[in-house]
Amino acid sequence: MKSILISIRPEWVAKILNGEKTIEIRKSAPKCDLPIDVYIYCTKGDKNYLMLRNIVNDPFTLINGKVVGKFRLKRIDCLRFGWEHNPYFSGIGSATCLSVKETKSYLGGKTGYLWHISDLEIFDEPIPLAALGAESAPQSWVYIESDREPIYARKGRCEAYCDGKLIGGNYILHITMNGSEIMHQKWAVMPTKAQAEEILSALNPEGI
User: How many whole angstroms separate alpha carbon 6 and alpha carbon 4?
Assistant: First the structure.
């Protein structure tokens, strides 16, 4: 299953999560059939932006350097030279949270693309890049491949994730503590989040 992983700065992620920003402007667009799932990676940035209480259950969940949710990309519009004079694009300022001047400055006279954010899903708990099978964050966006929806679980300093990729006929569940892998398990059928949480509870019953 093909999806997209996109990097977005914390201040813009916050606006997406609270529903203020419904269009993301990019200098390129995917060459694939739509719709497609797009996973939102919140870059680390210079500040530690925290999710608000009305966005997630835990108001102190750090979103920097994590995948915080996903949306369904169903439509892309093209911004070509002179777009600012086209009535069709008259409302993009409120949807992108950018002025015409800021948009033109970002595009630098080149063609731009409006990624329309639909069916936004905010994860209860932000997940690491590794849960998507990504070793590092993209500069802008990249395609990612997965057979199944990735899972992620956490208990104290222990985490478990499976990126949904078959390796040698098995799904691999990675178990980490303090960010370092301490073990992994092979599963013929992809484990569920509940199973991952059960394993973490057995390893770290106190949730320390």
Answer: 6
Residues forming a β-bridge with 166: 171
Kindly report, residue by residue over 37-79, the tens digit of the pLDDT.
999 999 986 555 554 434 544 444 567 889 999 999 999 999 9
Question: Coil, strand or helix: which one is 169?
Answer: coil
How far apart CA 78 and CA 115 sit, in angstroms, is 9
Helix, strand or coil, per DSSP, at residue 89: helix
Query: Omega before 35 cis (within 30°)?
Result: yes
**Angstrom distance (rounded) from CA 91 to CA 102:** 14
CA atoms within 13 A on the CB side of 192: 3
What the block records as the tokens of 208 is 């320390």
Q: Where are the domains of the chain?
A: 2-145, 149-208
* CA 58 to chain CA centroid, nearest Å: 18
Least confident interval from 99-103, 168-172, 177-181, 187-191 = 177-181
Statement: 2-145 belongs to CATH 2.30.130.30: yes
